[in-house]
């Protein structure tokens, strides 16, 4: 029986934002993920950490629907989305950023954000030329403000610094009132000043938007998260609060090389 929108929203009111149960992903004989179970509450901000090859990006790909799990189930706000394609998960409020920037470099900052807003709106297939004062353009300006790009809204993306392009990607992920976002290494390649700005942007996101952040920069990850999941060889290795993970001797030995300076 088909589940109505009203039923989904009602269930989402009490359900966890994300639940993975026994998720395994095989590539031939290689297990990229093995029996991963994870629960994230609505509005929770969680970091997923681990060395290269730990399975973090494969985990994101399974959550978003880029890969389907070989075994296990994935629930988004109480709804089983294990077999859903990526666009159906987007319709239910899931968003993602990628390690490599995916932007229209020949268009302005505001045009990029506007297209993202339009792409998740009901009028996205209309052939009517949009006016700059319509509701979607107003939403685009609000998002530009939220990611500290309002002063360069008319600048072509190709002219932005690398850090500003990463900020723009966050704005695109915020288009269309998302409920849960996956951030894939947003601090990679940023200067110390740009990292501080990223921390401020993520910290000030609306409280109802939960997220998971994959990040090699532990200083960033631990400051913008309230819980941490450590992965190793495709499995969950440790879970805890940032202070617990940072001071854990096994984590320091495995991930930090014996110390965290």
UniProtKB/TrEMBL annotation:
Q: Does the keyword Endoplasmic reticulum apply?
A: no
Gene3D superfamilies referenced in this protein's UniProt entry, alphabetically: P-loop containing nucleotide triphosphate hydrolases
Return one Gene Ontology term, BP aspect: L-isoleucine import across plasma membrane
Q: Name one Pfam family in it.
A: ABC_tran
User: Which keywords appear in this protein's UniProt record, sorted alphabetically?
Assistant: ATP-binding, Nucleotide-binding, Transport
Keyword Transmembrane helix on entry:
no
Q: Tell me the protein's name.
A: ABC transporter ATP-binding protein
Which source organism does the UniProt entry give?
Answer: Metarhizobium album
């Amino acid at each position: 029986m088909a589940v109505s929108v009203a039923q989904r929203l009602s269930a989402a009111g009490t359900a966890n934002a994300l639940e993975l149960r026994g998720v395994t992903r095989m590539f031939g004989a290689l297990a990229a993920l093995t029996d991963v179970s994870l629960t994230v509450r609505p509005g929770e901000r969680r970091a997923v950490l681990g060395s290269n090859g730990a399975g973090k990006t494969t985990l994101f790909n399974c959550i978003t629907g880029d890969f389907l799990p070989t075994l296990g189930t994935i629930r988004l706000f109480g709804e089983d989305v294990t077999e859903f394609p990526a666009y159906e998960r987007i319709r239910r409020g899931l968003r993602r950023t990628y390690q490599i920037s995916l932007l229209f470099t020949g268009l302005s900052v505001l045009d990029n954000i506007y297209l993202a807003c339009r792409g998740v709106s009901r009028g996205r297939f209309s052939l009517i030329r949009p006016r700059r004062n319509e509701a979607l353009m107003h939403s685009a300006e609000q998002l530009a403000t939220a990611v500290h790009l309002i002063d360069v809204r008319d600048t072509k993306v190709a002219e932005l610094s690398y850090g500003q392009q990463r900020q723009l990607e966050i704005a695109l992920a915020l288009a269309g009132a998302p409920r849960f976002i996956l951030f894939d290494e947003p601090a990679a390649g940023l200067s110390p000043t740009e990292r501080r700005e990223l921390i401020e942007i993520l910290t000030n996101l609306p409280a109802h938007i939960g997220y998971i952040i994959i990040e090699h920069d532990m200083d960033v990850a631990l400051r913008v998260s309230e819980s941490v999941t450590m992965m190793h060889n495709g499995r969950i290795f440790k879970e805890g609060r940032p202070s617990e993970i940072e001071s854990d001797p096994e984590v320091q030995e495995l991930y930090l090389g014996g110390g965290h300076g």
